[in-house]
Design goal:
Nucleotidyltransferase, domain 5; 2 domains; five-stranded mixed beta sheet; 7 strands; about 35% helix
Length: about 190
């Protein structure tokens, strides 16, 4: 396996022990076998990456019960339109449209949706009518066909940032889409 060769330092005659050169030659062939055995052992004993699965929550097959009526003072609706426009109103659409209380905003955290959500939460807390307080706010996000995926994500981000516990993505009603079309046609 290993050999030690003793050679003189190229002198003729006597060689002195301090002038002797020792050459060590090691045969590495068995070490290669050992290396392959170790690699094989670790390949067979390690756990390969396990597939990660995302949980998918499907609706229940049980009959749908009608949810309790949501008070208008707890509802805030965002209508996501094209060109990054957002229309919002509190409570019922017909009442808000009749009172001309449908407003336009943007996706800004400080001046847009975020400010609107924080103001609504503050109003709910100030009213003192609800035991849940600001956690009772129901945010309805209604993307229209003109809105893009980024708009929905931005609205959901604002819901999470402002700690809105109840929110839903809902399809807009016909009256809401016709209202947005009328605003688009009027140049607003």
């Amino acid at each position: 396996m290993a050999q030690i060769e003793n050679t003189a330092n190229g002198r003729k005659g006597k060689s002195f022990s301090h002038n002797k050169k020792l050459i060590i030659r090691i045969d590495m062939t068995p070490m290669v076998d050992l290396g392959f055995l170790l690699i094989t052992f670790f390949v067979f004993t390690t756990t390969m990456s396990t597939p990660k699965v995302t949980d998918l929550f499907m609706p229940s097959d049980k009959p749908v019960t009608i949810p309790p009526e949501l008070p208008n003072s707890l509802a805030l609706t965002l209508l996501l339109s094209e060109n990054n426009k957002v229309y919002y109103y509190n409570g019922d659409f017909n009442e808000a449209a009749g009172a001309n209380k449908i407003f336009e905003t943007n996706y800004s955290t400080y001046e847009g949706i975020g400010k609107i959500i924080r103001q609504k939460q503050k109003d709910i807390d100030a009213s003192g009518k609800f035991a849940d307080g600001r956690k009772g706010l129901m945010l309805l996000i209604k993307p229209t066909s003109g809105s893009v995926y980024k708009n929905v994500i931005d609205a959901l981000d604002e819901a999470v940032i402002n700690d809105v516990k109840k929110y839903a993505i809902v399809e807009p009603a016909n009256e809401e889409t016709s209202y947005i079309r009328s605003k688009k046609g009027s140049g607003l």
